[in-house]
Each structure stands twice: as structure tokens, then as C-alpha cells.
């Protein structure tokens, strides 16, 4: 089992999860984070820290797309181990449906 970052992280990109991760398994894209499934130790400390409720255990049904996306982009994006400020408009995007099709960016973030 691993945890995965899901659609609600897109354009929200709160980083409370990064701050508590004991194994630094988060990777930063331009407008979302992902978890490297081979590095995650399934401790679960990140899940309750996410204000957008965007982190889920991969055992929940319907997360196959997100597990694949997390795996793919964790190998392409830079590692992030320190919390940064969320985008100024994050609250406006929190809970919005259909963000992947409209807003997902495959571009890397800056990392540490």
C-alpha cells in the first residue's frame, strides 16, 4: 500500500504534507505534488495534514489513475522536502471538480 495525491491538489498545492513526511517522498510539479509509491512507507501522517483532502490510501476504490500519475511524475519532477506557501488562489480551486482536464500541468516545480 501507498498513499497517492489526487485531483484536488491541482492548483491548491498546499504543502503541509511535505513538512511531516519522514521519508521525503513528495515530488513537486508546477501546480500539484505527487508521492513516489516506491518511497512511501505507508505511515499515513501526510493524509490528515492535507487541508484539501487530496491524499488518499491507494486501497480506496477508483484511484488507479492517480496511482499511475503519482508513479510517473515522481520520476520526472524534483523532490520537495520543505513546505512552501500555497498559491494565493488555492482556496478558490479547493473542491473544484474536473481540474485534471483543465488545469493539470506536466511541467516540473522547483523542488528544494
From TrEMBL:
Glycoprotein is among the record's keywords: no
PROSITE patterns in the record: 4FE4S_FER_1, 4FE4S_FER_2
Residue ranges constituting the 4Fe-4S ferredoxin-type domain according to the UniProt record: 1-30, 31-60
Describe the task this protein carries out.
Ferredoxins are iron-sulfur proteins that transfer electrons in a wide variety of metabolic reactions.
What InterPro entries does the database record attribute to this sequence?
A: 4Fe4S_Fe-S-bd (IPR017896), 4Fe4S_Fe_S_CS (IPR017900), 7Fe_ferredoxin (IPR000813), Fd_C (IPR022569), FdxA (IPR054829), RnfB_subfamily (IPR050294)
One example of the protein's molecular function in GO is:
metal ion binding
Q: Which Pfam families match?
A: DUF3470, Fer4
The name of this protein is: Ferredoxin
Which NCBIfam families does this UniProt record tie to the protein?
Answer: FdxA_Protbact
Name the domain of life this protein comes from: Bacteria
- Which keywords does this Swiss-Prot/TrEMBL entry list? 3Fe-4S, 4Fe-4S, Electron transport, Iron, Iron-sulfur, Metal-binding, Repeat, Transport
Q: Look up keyword DNA damage and say if it applies.
A: no
Q: Which cofactor does it need?
A: [3Fe-4S] cluster; [4Fe-4S] cluster
Gene3D superfamilies on file: 3.30.70.20
Amino acid at each position: 500500500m501507498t498513499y497517492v495525491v489526487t485531483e484536488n491538489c491541482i492548483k491548491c498545492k498546499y504543502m503541509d504534507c511535505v513538512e511531516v513526511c519522514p521519508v521525503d517522498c513528495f515530488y513537486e510539479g508546477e501546480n500539484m505534488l505527487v508521492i513516489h509509491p516506491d518511497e512511501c512507507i505507508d505511515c499515513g501522517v501526510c493524509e490528515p495534514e492535507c487541508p484539501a483532502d487530496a491524499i488518499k490510501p491507494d486501497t480506496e476504490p477508483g484511484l488507479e489513475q492517480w496511482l499511475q500519475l503519482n508513479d510517473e511524475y515522481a520520476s520526472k519532477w524534483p523532490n520537495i522536502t520543505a513546505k512552501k506557501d500555497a498559491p494565493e488562489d488555492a482556496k478558490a480551486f479547493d473542491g473544484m471538480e474536473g481540474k485534471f482536464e483543465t488545469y493539470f500541468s506536466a511541467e516540473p516545480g522547483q523542488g528544494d
